[in-house]
């Protein structure tokens, strides 16, 4: 079914970005070409990860990232090395997903607490889209969420399908343009109508144009086309942050994250070798820049965590720094004007008051903002004039204050001091920032207080 829907006239300018950097369309960054890899298999073996580490070292600069949506990024490639990377992946048997990004929970089909396995619907939707000639936005994102411990409630998507228990099994809540709470609800669809309903939305996006996103859809018209009244009630089962130790049914699962989402290939290889010796059997990429490890036992868990510590992987749910997004920075990108890793470590050491998980922080080497394209409560961004401070904005926004990169550590210390002094007992970072006058923060940052 093809429908033409009017554009919703809201300001969307800053969210429109370029193509997704796949292996077919690598993205130029300050440290060479970057490719984002979405393995088709839900789980990777130790051999897969060792092969990826070797390929990153041989064909890139060895820096590997796990993105916020649980994809892999290899950096520092060249036009000449990308074809070799593709050949190496094929030789290792690592098949990549192409086309529209359709995400399912990392334990779909495995987690006994899920409402339903989202993978079959995701596969059917992927196949249905591939049979069309639609030109869709390169960064179009679809979430098919069957629930469970690591459900994707907080993942933003253009089109969401959330399973909800129904009288006769499962129904799917279709919504557009947001996470589970913020997406605009369209309809509750029965199991046998959800694929057609989702394809109606995909067709509507294609009809609007090749850059259309979920925010551009006319929800009332879509609901009418689907023959259902918009649903106002969001299903609200929260997701569990993947970091730390979890019980899924009878098995022990360890969630790891390379510090700030970044790892050197050698560290990844050492981690995989160490975890394999502890019994690790498979690894699942997961949201929040994490890797879920299966096959460990209660007896080997402590050794596995020690191995993670040795190799620079966070492994506790309250790891400091997990709410800070950083890009490669001066250590790996020629566009960066300062070392983002050192700045993030300074935030952890000096401004822990901001790291309670209630806000996102972003440290960006330049205004491109690769690591966190959406707004963050606090952003430190490299500019030609120094390191800018941006409150509740994107790296591409104009900074409210700029200091020399050499002054950043003391500036972070001053920010931490003023916030610690103002914080009421038990107060969240979000509340603290909301009631602190921006002028006080800017003065502290610039050393004027
Ligand atoms: S945001 Fe960071 S990684 Fe991206 S181009 Fe700028 S400095 Fe490089």
From TrEMBL:
EC number, UniProt record: 1.14.13.83
Positions of the Nitrite/Sulfite reductase ferredoxin-like domain: 26-92
GO MF annotation: an example: 4 iron, 4 sulfur cluster binding
Key words of the record: 4Fe-4S, Heme, Iron, Iron-sulfur, Metal-binding, Oxidoreductase
Protein's UniProt keywords contain Metal-binding: yes
Cross-referenced InterPro entries: Cbl_synth_CobG-like, NIR_SIR_4Fe-4S, NiRdtase/SiRdtase_haem-b_fer, Nit/Sulf_reduc_fer-like_dom_sf, NO2/SO3_Rdtase_4Fe4S_sf
Membrane is among the record's keywords: no
Pfam families referenced in this protein's UniProt entry, alphabetically: NIR_SIR_ferr (PF03460)
PANTHER family registered for this protein in UniProt: BLR3264 PROTEIN, FERREDOXIN--NITRITE REDUCTASE, CHLOROPLASTIC
Listed name of the protein: Precorrin-3B synthase
Taxonomic lineage from the root: Bacteria, Pseudomonadati, Pseudomonadota, Alphaproteobacteria, Hyphomicrobiales
Gene from which the chain derives: cobG
